[in-house]
Amino acid sequence: MSYDLWYWPSIQGRGEFVRLALEAAGVDYRDRARTDGVEALTEDMGSRGGIRPYAPPYVVDGDLAVAQTAHILAWLGERRGFAADDERGNLELIELQLTISDVVAEAHDTHHPLTVSEPYEDQKDAAPRKAEGFREQRMPKYFTYFEDALSAKDGPFVRGDRWSHVDTSLFQLVEGLRYAFPKRMATIEGDYPKLIACHDAVAELDAIAAYLASDRRIAFNEDGIFRHYPELDGA
Amino acid sequence: MSYDLWYWPSIQGRGEFVRLALEAAGVDYRDRARTDGVEALTEDMGSRGGIRPYAPPYVVDGDLAVAQTAHILAWLGERRGFAADDERGNLELIELQLTISDVVAEAHDTHHPLTVSEPYEDQKDAAPRKAEGFREQRMPKYFTYFEDALSAKDGPFVRGDRWSHVDTSLFQLVEGLRYAFPKRMATIEGDYPKLIACHDAVAELDAIAAYLASDRRIAFNEDGIFRHYPELDGA
C-alpha cells in the first residue's frame, strides 16, 4: 500500500516529521509535490471540500486525507507499527508528539513573531526578543520535559529499544535547532544526554542513515521552519 | 467514574474546552485547582515524573494523566460517547480539534506576540500588528475552514444532529473571539452562518445552558487566552 504525502516541495518544514517516520518504517510513499510540482499541491488542496486539510502536510490513502502533523504520525504509527502496543503507550506518544508540535511552532515564530503573511525581513526588529525568550526559557523547558520522558524507560528511545514516531520527531527537533541556533545548542546540549542519545540512535537506524544520505532529504534553508539567522542565535 | 481536571482556577483558558465537553456530556469531574487551590496544581504537576503533562490542562483517571487539550478531548470523547462512531469520523474530529488548538494559540499570541513570560504591557507595542493580521487574515481563513467542515453534514453540528467535542470547542472559540474582538466579529460573523448555528446549538444544549448560568463558568478576563484590549480590536 502506498500513501501520498502532500507538502511544500522545497523545504523540510512540518512535512519532514512525516517523511522521517515513513522512511524509518520503510513505508512506501509518494512525495507528490516533489514529483508533480507545487501547483499540483495547491490544486489538490483546493479540490477538497467538507472536512479537508487546513494546510499541508497531509497524507492521502485512497479517499481519506489526514492532516495535522502529530495526527498524521499517530495515525500512521498505529497502522504501520511504529507507535506503541497499548492504549496508554499511545496516549503518551500522542501527548509527546503534540508537545513537539508546540515547540516547533515556537521555533517558527522566532523568525515570524508578528505575521505569517510577510517575510522575516519585515519583522526582524521584533524577532530578536522573541528568539531570546525561546533560546533562554523555552528550549530548556521543553528539553527538560523530553529528557524526563526519555527517563521513563532505559532508552535510547521513548519506548525503550524500539523507535516510534516521537523519536524520529525528536531527532528532527534536535537537527533543526542545531541548524537554527548552533551557539545555543552548543551551550545546552550536554545537559540533555538522553535527548541527544535518542537523536543519535535515530540517526543510526539503517533506513534513516540511507535517507539522510539521499537526495530525498532536502537541506535546511531559510524558507523552512528552522532557519539560521545569526542575529537570532546566542550562547 | 469521576475524573480530576487540573487547570488554572481563575481563567477559562484552555481548560474551558475540557470543562465544556465534560459538562455537555454530564461526566462527573472534579475541577481540582478550584477546590484545592493553585498551589495544589503546581504541587501535583511537580510530583509527576517520566512522561508527564508539559502544562495544564490535564485530566487524571486513576494513575493515568492525559495532557494537551485536543488530546484530552479525543480521549474522553471516545471513552464517553461524544466523539464519532467510526475511525474516519474520529480522525476528522481530531484534525478539526487540533486546528482549533492552532487558532486558539494564535488568538493568545495577539496579546503575547514576543514572550509568554512577560505581561501584555511589556509587549503592547508589537501586539497591534500581530492582532491586525489575526483579525484580517487568520480569522476569515479559519472560519472558512470550519464553515466548510460544518457543510459536510446537515448540521447543526459537525457530525450532524449529535454534538461532539469539536462543537463545544467551536462554541468556545466563537464566544472567546466575540469577547476579545467584538468589532471584528460583528463585521464577519454573518459570513459564517453554519459556524454560528453550531455555536447557538451548543448554547442550547440543556447541560451547557445550565453550566453557563452556574458559577462553575468563570467569566472571561484579562488573564486568560481571550482578552479584550480595545486597542487590538477593529472592524
Short description:
Two copies of one chain form a homodimer. With 235 residues, chain A is of the alpha+beta class.
State the main characteristics.
globular; alpha+beta; four-stranded mixed β-sheet; homodimer; about 240 residues; about 55% helix; Glutathione S-transferase Yfyf (Class Pi), Chain A, domain 2
Structural notes for this entry:
- Two copies of one chain form a homodimer.
- The first copy, chain A, has 235 residues and is of the alpha+beta class.
- The first copy, chain A, has a domain at 87-205: Glutathione S-transferase Yfyf (Class Pi), Chain A, domain 2.
- Chain A has ten helices and four strands, in the order E-H-E-H-H-E-E-H-H-H-H-H-H-H.
- Chain A has helices at residues 15-25, 32-36, 38-47, 69-80, 87-111, 127-150, 165-180, 182-188, 193-203, 206-213; strands at 3-6, 29-31, 58-61, 64-67.
- Chain A has a four-stranded mixed beta sheet.
- In chain A, helix 4 runs antiparallel to helix 5 and helix 7 (165-180) packs across helix 9 (193-203).
- The longest helix of chain A has 25 residues, at 87-111.
- The first copy, chain A, starts with a strand and ends in a 22-residue tail after the last helix.
- Chains A and B meet through strand 4, helix 4, helix 5 and helix 6 of A and strand 4, helix 4, helix 5 and helix 6 of B.
